[in-house]
Amino acid sequence: MSKLNDLLESEGFEDIIEFAETYVLESIVPGICMNPACSNVYEYEPDQNEGWCDCCASNTVKSGLILAGMI
After folding, report:
1. pTM
2. Residue 2, SS3?
3. Contacts of 18 (CB under 8 A, 6+ apart)
4. What is the DSSP letter of 1?
5. DSSP conformation letters of 6-71
6. Contact 61, 53 (CB under 8 A)
């Protein structure tokens, strides 16, 4: 849950409810790199679970909606 909290904080959301209300019907949502030493944020499709992280050069970015268990 720490990565989800990092994502919410980086995007300026107080809680997951506010995040969900903003993004649940959008076609592009914030996602965060899941590598422990990286927390880069990118915009991806809501169902993305292997997005590309430029910093890590790996497919480790997950959508915030997946992290929240909404997809």
Report:
1. 0.91
2. helix
3. none
4. -
5. HHHHHHT-SSHHHHHHHHTT-SSEEEEE-STT---EEEE-TT-SSEEETTTTEEEEEEHHHHTT--
6. yes
